[in-house]
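As a warm-up, study this chain.
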Amino acid sequence: MFCNQCEQTAKGTGCTKVGVCGKQPEVAALQDLLIYALQGLSEVAVQARAKGVSEADLNRFVNEGVFSTLTNVDFDPARFEVLIRDAVARREALKAKSGVNVATPAATFAPAATLEGLVAQGEQHNISEALEAHEDLRSLKQILIYGLKGVAAYADHAAILGREDESVYEFVQRALAKSLDKLGLEELIGLCMECGQVNLKAMELLDGGNTGTYGHPVPTEVPLGAKKGKAILVSGHDLKDLAMLLEQTAGKGINIYTHGEMLPCHGYPELKKHAHFHGHYGTAWQNQQKEFAEFPGAILMTTNCIQKPVESYKGNIFTTGLVGWPGVTHVGKDFTQVIAKALEMPGFAADEDKGSVLTGFARNAVLGVADKVIAAVKGGDIRHFFLVAGCDGAKPGRNYYTEFVEKVPSDCVVLTLACGKFRFFDKKLGDIGGIPRLLDVGQCNDAYSAIQIAVALAGAFNCGVNDLPLSMVLSWYEQKAVAILLTLLSLGIKGIRLGPSLPAFITPNVLNVLVENFDIKPITTPDEDLKAILG
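Now compare it with the structure written out below.
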């Protein structure tokens, strides 16, 4: 195998024996083969769309398939076999329906009869090696495909809540098809920037789905301790899964806790109204093996972020949606089995007070006090804003973000989002004139909210976003972060600091393009970076 799509890839170059994430070589091969099958399906879909044939079910299928290959989503080879065969069957059905005749290798690829055969085929279509011979062009194609994985994830979350846009589906399929072509540097850069713009649309759709269904987040104090009684822990990102679980557990004497990126869910009014929606347990995804082992209830994994379950809790964890792990019980949207397991387990023996944290500072909450923020900036009370955001992970170097936030001067405000916040989410930084110095904007997709906040402030100060007293210090781990980075670059955001290490799939020449055009730079040390930013 060879996989370099995440930040923690082995030796900073690529996983060659088994994925650091726990992905086995056969799964890596099947994921690459699924992408190849979806590229072929997309070649047909692009031509069919030109003839007026576009199928809603096929659009959703392509996005779900791409999303399934994102880091820490699905590790089950049997499920990938089904997806690969389904992709080819849909491709042939679409050819027959539309009259399109595409004779490219991907559009005529026939899957092997056995799982072992599929694995062998997948090894011939490795994204990290087989896309393109020229290393810089291959690098840009990888950036594009990994960005598409993030777009597909956000678009799928949005579609679950009834928010869809044909232009997103059209681009995902067109870009998948184009990634098979011989493309030049400029065209590939253009596709990457377009991917960023389409991701902004996908995040906007998801934001509309979340806020339209559950209300705009409001500042909320979330307990970090436990309440005596039975318990279910929900991890991942999906608000609808959490809402359905809250409804299905009403009156059953079970308290619901969030884990990881589900923390911001406590700020949504329609979720907050459930009395048994108690608090937050644990920290980021990479700590789950220890934290889940200590949780005395059932665990439900939604969307991505699953790690290999250890035996001590393997019988207590359930997956839903696109998440999968061999040997772990997969449930639909009827959570009866999850509830039954929670009732079997001891739950928390007593109340535990471990303090609390604040969340719910999405765009409506922040812009609702924009006049105070603007006055504080003009009055010199707020000198600078820092967006310290992105993914968390286990690789050394991420303590940088803790130290950075701790060293941010007292006249500066820190905005944060995504699971990178768990490096400092419980720090008590105080406030400036009643404005908290640490503002949790939300999940990774709430980069949309952060962008809207920046745009609104730029409008208020009659300047561009790059002219604001705002610096972005970002961490990345998986492909949704790639999509968000492309969004920021497509908006012309400059001076981003990125860490803890740069992507292994970015070549020196491509990095030079990013540096020259966007002034993107790797993090150094907190002291050096703060001095460079603030002077």
